[in-house]
Recover the amino acids of this structure.
């Protein structure tokens, strides 16, 4: 089933109505995509995978935030890898007819392909950091045991054309932004012992020890730093199509200007896995469209394949740089 052409307003409606991201910013895209194509609610769970358990308490823990973010980053890696290796890479706005991610044709755009390649490299770095904080192997082995799925599912045709892919990617990155903004709020609330959050947070990478308040404040800063990068991804994705304001191919997406927001949005979230307050929302249930197969979705796409092969779709010389911000 082909994707319908959604409008930015449709994406906003989905983001505001659902809680994009309870274990991932990615969830939002799944919900948006499912809504756009009328995705069936009948899904089949992945063998051997269990969703991260909701805490018994009334707020997220640091470990839950890291786990939720890792699911999002693994999904992002899988998404960008398949964008660069799938049929849509031959779009004239990317590598062009006959081109590949690492061999852009004369009619393609090296710059636009590099946008996707840079985003992929950055998501890999984010995932490695989160695994380290969770005490996992940085290369990705052991993610399943930590509650991160090995496969992700997308609306059929997502990676076939740019017209199908772009709305999913924009919604997905919007969800990432909302998730990390929520993480900023939660880590600072932990450090302050505010609104039910506790400053006593176990360090999963160091059994028997707890984070200090200074650690929690640093992680709020790290989440803000990643949020900024995800915002870059959203704007650059919107800048990929060569369009005019009246272009029928992307009618309703309002791609001009690509940087169209005065402020990024938290997308109505008050928690990642555990909502705070009676009006709070999370997106634990909204993860289902990406984490389980359904009749309206494609076959699963392997995270392991994406994580082990991402360098094969990145052109030599395309690099990213920078480390996490330092503690004050």
């Amino acid at each position: 089933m082909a994707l319908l052409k959604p409008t930015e307003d449709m994406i906003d409606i989905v983001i505001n109505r659902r809680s994009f991201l309870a274990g991932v910013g990615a969830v939002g895209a799944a919900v948006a995509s499912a809504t756009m194509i009328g995705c069936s609610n009948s899904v089949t769970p992945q063998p051997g995978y269990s969703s991260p358990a909701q805490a018994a308490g009334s707020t997220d823990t640091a470990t839950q935030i890291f786990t939720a973010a890792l699911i999002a980053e693994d999904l992002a890696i899988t998404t960008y890898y398949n964008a660069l290796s799938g049929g849509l890479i031959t779009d004239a706005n990317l590598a062009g007819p006959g081109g590949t991610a690492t061999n852009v044709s004369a009619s393609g755009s090296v710059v636009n392909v590099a946008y996707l390649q840079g985003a992929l490299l950055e998501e890999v770095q984010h995932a490695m950091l989160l695994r380290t904080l969770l005490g996992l192997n940085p290369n990705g082995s052991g993610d399943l045991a930590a509650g991160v799925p090995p496969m992700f599912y997308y609306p059929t045709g997502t990676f076939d054309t740019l017209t199908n892919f772009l709305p999913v990617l924009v919604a997905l990155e919007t969800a990432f932004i909302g998730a990390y903004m929520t993480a900023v709020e939660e880590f600072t609330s932990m450090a302050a012992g505010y609104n039910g959050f506790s400053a006593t947070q176990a360090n999963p990478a160091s059994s028997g020890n707890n984070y200090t308040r200074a650690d929690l404040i640093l992680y709020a800063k790290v989440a803000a730093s990643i949020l900024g990068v995800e915002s870059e991804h959203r704007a650059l994705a919107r800048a990929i199509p060569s369009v005019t304001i009246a272009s029928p191919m992307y009618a309703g997406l309002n791609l001009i200007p690509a940087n169209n927001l005065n402020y990024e949005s938290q997308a109505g979230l008050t928690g990642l896995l555990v909502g705070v307050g009676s009006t709070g929302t999370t997106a634990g249930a909204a993860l289902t469209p990406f984490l389980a197969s359904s009749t309206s979705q494609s076959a699963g796409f392997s995270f392991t394949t994406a994580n082990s092969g991402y360098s094969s779709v990145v052109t030599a010389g395309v690099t990213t740089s920078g480390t996490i911000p330092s503690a004050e």
